């Protein structure tokens, strides 16, 4: 009897087909992976720009008055009148207060009377000298008598001169009973009021007067900048003072460079002069001062994050026309806010990577997700 032949079942055929299809799919997927390149790295980039930038030195500063005067009484007496309010703006020569003048009026009258008496005596003595001069030449009187007359006249002339000085002094004291502002400025707290007794050159001033228009800003910069400052000092260097409140800024000029470097801090003191017409700056106020020494022409600027510190020095990734990033060594200069000057290594218009450098290798393909401004 011949053996019976069995036909394969449908379940076995289906399993075989599934294995074949799976092997073909894996082969096609592997071939697809081998045929595609590496994925592009997303980065942020910005163009290098060329423009003129100022060479600036910025330092914290403090405002001080152009002049500060303690207004004190120059004669002793009782204050009878105060003609200003605390915090007023006053002009040079304006009356601030008055002292009881009666004592000094009497002293002036007495000095004037003494002068008038001595002037009369001097006039009489001179007439006698003229009258007896001829008699002395004719020897009707002795030379000793004539010399005594002339000596008396000379002594009276000296007395009149002294009297004139006394009159001037009394008149000046009387004028001092009216206290005037020696400079234009703003008054501070009133320390002596009506009815107070003040003394000549007393320890307590009437008021403190600060000249605020114009006004000064003092600030110190590193002494290493001194050669540049001296080189450009005669060019009316611009100084900017920026206040903290509202970020207001005023323009002035450099007015003073100290003649000594502070050996403790290694700095040199500078002062800027500001017209301060609107009264923005106030004595004792803290500001940020910036002096502009010169304009640097055609500087190449890139964002600060674009510069990476490497083992061989700073470098940037430059994106080429084929969208690949290539590292390039650079030399950097000053930092201007969020930008840095590149003195060598980058040309104007080239695109540099500002974020994503850690994921890059030389020649990596990149895609710019956004451009930094």
Which helices and strands, and how do they pair?
Layout (H helix, E strand, L loop, with lengths): L9 H26 L5 E7 L1 E23 L5 E6 L6 E2 L4 E5 L2 H36 L5 H34 L1 E3 L4 E3 L9 E2 L8 E16 L3 H7 L5 E6 L5 E14 L4 E8 L11 E18 L4 E3 L2 E7 L4 E6 L1 E6 L2 E6 L6 E5 L8 E8 L2
Parallel strand pairs: 1-20
Antiparallel strand pairs: 1-19, 2-9, 2-13, 3-5, 3-8, 4-7, 5-6, 7-9, 9-12, 10-11, 10-13, 11-12, 13-18, 14-15, 15-16, 15-19, 16-20, 17-18
- Residue share in helix: 25-40%
Q: Please compute the radius of gyration using only Cα atoms.
A: 46 Å
CATH topology of the largest domain: Elongation Factor Tu (Ef-tu), domain 3
The secondary-structure element order is HEEEEEHHEEEEHEEEEEEEEEEE
CATH class of the largest domain: Mainly Beta
* Oligomerization: single chain
Mean pLDDT: 87
| Distance separating the two termini | 94 Å
Let me know the CATH homologous superfamily of the largest domain.
Answer: Efflux pump adaptor protein, beta barrel domain
Shape: elongated
Domain unit count: 4
What is the SS-derived class?
alpha+beta
Q: Report the sheet with the most strands, covering strand number, pairing sense and barrel closure.
A: 6 strands, antiparallel, barrel
The unreliable regions are 1-35
Strand order across the largest sheet? 2-9-12-11-10-13
Which CATH architecture of the largest domain is right? Answer: Beta Barrel
Strand content: 35-45%
Counted beta strands: 20
The number of helical elements comes to 4
């Amino acid at each position: 009897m011949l053996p019976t032949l069995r036909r394969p079942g449908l379940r076995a055929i289906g399993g075989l087909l599934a294995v074949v299809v799976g092997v073909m799919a894996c082969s096609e997927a592997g071939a697809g992976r081998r045929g595609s390149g590496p994925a592009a790295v997303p980065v942020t980039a910005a163009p290098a720009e060329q423009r003129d930038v100022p060479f600036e030195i910025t330092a914290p500063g403090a405002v001080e008055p152009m002049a500060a005067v303690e207004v004190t009484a120059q004669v002793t007496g009782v204050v009878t009148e105060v003609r200003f309010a605390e915090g007023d703006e006053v002009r040079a020569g304006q009356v601030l207060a008055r002292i009881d003048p009666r004592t000094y009026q009497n002293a002036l009258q007495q000095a004037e009377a003494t002068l008038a008496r001595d002037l009369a005596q001097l006039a009489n003595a001179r007439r006698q000298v003229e009258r007896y001069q001829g008699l002395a030449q004719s020897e009707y009187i002795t030379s000793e008598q004539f010399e005594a007359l002339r000596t008396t006249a000379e002594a009276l002339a000296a007395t009149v001169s002294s009297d004139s000085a006394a009159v001037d002094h009394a008149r000046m004291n009387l004028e001092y009973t009216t206290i005037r502002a020696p400079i234009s400025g703003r008054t501070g707290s009133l320390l002596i009021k009506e009815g107070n007794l003040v003394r000549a050159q007393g320890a307590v001033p009437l008021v403190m007067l600060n000249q605020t228009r114009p006004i000064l800003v003092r600030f110190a910069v590193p002494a290493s900048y001194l050669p540049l400052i001296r080189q450009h000092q005669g060019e009316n260097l611009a100084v900017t003072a920026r206040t903290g409140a509202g970020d207001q800024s005023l323009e002035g000029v450099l007015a003073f460079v100290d003649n000594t470097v502070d050996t403790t801090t290694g700095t040199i003191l500078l002062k800027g002069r500001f017209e301060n017409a609107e009264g923005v700056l106030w004595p004792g106020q803290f500001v940020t001062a910036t002096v502009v020494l010169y304009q640097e022409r055609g500087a190449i600027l890139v964002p600060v994050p674009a510069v990476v510190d490497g083992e061989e020095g700073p470098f940037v990734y430059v994106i080429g026309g084929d969208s690949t990033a290539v590292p390039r060594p650079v030399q950097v200069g000053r930092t201007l806010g969020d930008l840095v000057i590149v003195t060598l290594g980058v040309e104007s218009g080239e695109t540099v990577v500002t974020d994503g450098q850690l994921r890059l290798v030389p020649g990596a393909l990149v895609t710019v997700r956004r451009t930094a401004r």
